[in-house]
Design goal:
The protein contains 7 helices and 17 strands. It is of the alpha+beta class and 341 residues long. It folds into 2 domains: 147 residues, Aminotransferase class 4, branched-chain amino acid transferase, N-terminal domain (D-amino Acid Aminotransferase, Chain A, domain 1); 161 residues, D-amino Acid Aminotransferase, subunit A, domain 2 (D-amino Acid Aminotransferase, Chain A, domain 2), CATH 3.20.10.10. Strands 1, 2, 3, 4, 5, 6, 7, 8 and 17 form a 9-stranded antiparallel sheet that branches. Strands 9, 10, 11, 12, 13, 14, 15 and 16 form an 8-stranded mixed sheet that branches. β15 and β16 form a beta hairpin. The structure holds pyridoxal-5'-phosphate and 2-OXO-4-methylpentanoic acid. Pyridoxal-5'-phosphate binds next to α6. 2-OXO-4-methylpentanoic acid (COI) binds next to loops.
Length: 341
């Protein structure tokens, strides 16, 4: 299979239309078989539940070319499970786990020419999503839904690649207590647009959101969970019911313990203790692990000892081990890597 002629090394995190996407429709209480199509357009009612009341959920995952030329994806079973919990919270039908994994693999395989080559620095981003598609004007769930998967080749999520970021503590909240912060729903991202623009206007890369109830604890950013490293080398990651259960973070916790022999604490992280950490990073499918060099809390600046030039040593080891597992140069734990073709 011949790869597309793209400048893989220059890709940013943007959308490039590829050849195929997967579409399945839900009607009269059942999903159809689903199929791959070349048509990238979605045509729905002007009154569709997704357009009026934001009844939409999504997932984010990646496909990689391994050193020996296989195309693989990472823990799609966990994305399938998370999408099921998102669907239940928004009263949407469940897209079954096995069908989800199959749809993802079919879409990646059909677009194999777009999976960036090993070592190019780029990957194939995979976006499964589902939305209420029939007309709904009273506030209630749709009866008809569409599940789709598209893919797009991407480079680093943050412009500077792995240059440390400066983040600011937001005065806005991302999620309410007992709200929807722990699911991957479009509504959580719509509300983050204004804080995101405000933070960029001030010259920062991202927002750090705090817990909405007490505003004393670290939650996450608009698109990634936090990791911290203590001065004595422990990995600390915030525990909260209103953050997205990141698959990257859960994988890194395992990697830290089982591969790097690090002690890990999943616990509440207070804003007051930010000055005590040695390293900080953002983790997620898109972000992979992006190091944070500085955290700004109103007029107070917290400079991480790892500095503004490179990743801290523990963050780097985590990054190299995780990406090694994903790209097939380091042996993966059982069941983490799904071979697509
Ligand atoms: N938190 C938020 C709000 C996200 O959008 C994402 C991205 O999916 C993550 C965390 C990271 O999750 P994952 O590692 O499963 O991609
Ligand atoms: C991902 O990491 O997959 C996400 O969905 C984050 C998004 C903000 C791009």
């Amino acid at each position: 299979m011949e790869k597309k002629d793209l400048e893989w090394g220059k890709l940013g995190f943007g959308y490039i239309e590829t050849d195929y996407r997967f579409v399945s429709n839900y009607k009269d209480g059942a999903w159809d078989e689903g199929t791959l199509t070349k048509d990238s357009q979605v045509v729905i009612s002007e009154c569709a539940a997704v357009l009026q009341y934001a009844q939409t959920i999504f997932e984010g995952m990646k496909a990689y070319t391994t050193k020996d030329g296989r195309i693989v994806t990472f823990r799609p079973d966990l994305n399938a499970e998370r999408m099921i919990s998102s669907a239940k919270r928004l009263e949407m039908p469940v897209y079954p786990k096995e069908k989800f994994i199959d749809a993802v693999c079919q879409t990646i395989k059909a677009n194999a020419a777009y999976v960036p080559p090993y070592g190019s620095g780029a990957t194939l981003y995979v976006r499964p999503y589902m939305f209420g598609s029939n007309a709904v004007i009273g506030v209630k769930p749709a009866d008809e839904y569409q599940f789709r998967v598209f893919v797009t080749p991407v480079g680093p999520y943050f412009k500077g690649g792995i240059k440390p970021l400066t983040i600011c503590v937001s005065d806005f909240d991302r999620a309410a207590p007992h709200g929807t912060g722990n699911i991957k729903a479009g509504l959580n991202y719509a509300m983050s647009m204004h804080p995101y623009i405000e933070c960029h206007k001030k010259g920062y890369d991202e927002n750090m959101y705090l817990d909405p109830a007490t505003r004393t604890k670290v939650e996450e950013t608009g698109g990634a969970n936090f990791l911290f490293v203590t001065k004595d080398g422990k990995l600390v990651t915030p525990k909260s019911d209103s953050i997205l259960p990141s698959i990257t973070r859960r994988s890194l916790v395992y990697v830290a313990q089982a591969y790097l022999g690090l002690e890990v604490e999943e616990r509440e992280v207070f804003v007051d203790e930010l000055g005590e950490f040695a390293e900080c990073g953002l983790c997620g499918t898109a972000a992979v692990i992006s190091p944070v060099g500085k955290i700004v809390l109103h007029d107070k600046e917290i400079a991480l000892p790892s500095g503004m030039n490179e990743m801290g040593p523990t963050t780097k080891k985590l990054y190299e081990t995780l990406t090694g597992i994903q790209m097939g140069t380091i042996k993966a734990p059982e069941g983490w890597i799904y071979e697509v073709c």
